[in-house]
Amino acid sequence: MFSKACEYGIRAAVYIALQSLDGRRVSVNEIAEEIDSPLAFTAKILQQLSKSKVIHSVKGPTGGFEIERTDMDHVKLSKIVHAIDGDEIFVGCGLGLKECNAQKPCPLHDKFVDIRNNLKNMLEQTSLYELATGLEVGLTYLRR
């Protein structure tokens, strides 16, 4: 459903949020290792997340990536998905057709609209803080 970059982006943002709750900045190397992602790919994803103001990048010897606690409530998963994959998941055809809409629907159109709307609602209502605190108490897992 999500691109591999988007999956890694969500995992990276959640990991950064979790570490930020402990007052730590994390390096791209640590993030890549913890989310089991190639280093160069992780760096590119983190650049996109930083540019979209999902995470903060701090330069220098004590630098790294972090997310302010106050931002964690406001950063929803939909913002991460949009930063990396754009809005295609919210508007695209379930079969990937270019000419699919209510006037010219594909065979899955009506069923997929409901699924897409439910997914959009879930992504818009789920915050980084919610996911990070779920990890903190052991309710969810970051690695496969």
UniProtKB/TrEMBL annotation:
<dbReference type="Pfam" id="PF02082">
    <property type="entry name" value="Rrf2"/>
</dbReference>
<dbReference type="InterPro" id="IPR036388">
    <property type="entry name" value="WH-like_DNA-bd_sf"/>
</dbReference>
<dbReference type="GO" id="GO:0003700">
    <property type="term" value="F:DNA-binding transcription factor activity"/>
</dbReference>
<dbReference type="InterPro" id="IPR036390">
    <property type="entry name" value="WH_DNA-bd_sf"/>
</dbReference>
<dbReference type="InterPro" id="IPR000944">
    <property type="entry name" value="Tscrpt_reg_Rrf2"/>
</dbReference>
<protein>
    <submittedName>
        <fullName>Rrf2 family transcriptional regulator</fullName>
    </submittedName>
</protein>
<dbReference type="GO" id="GO:0005829">
    <property type="term" value="C:cytosol"/>
</dbReference>
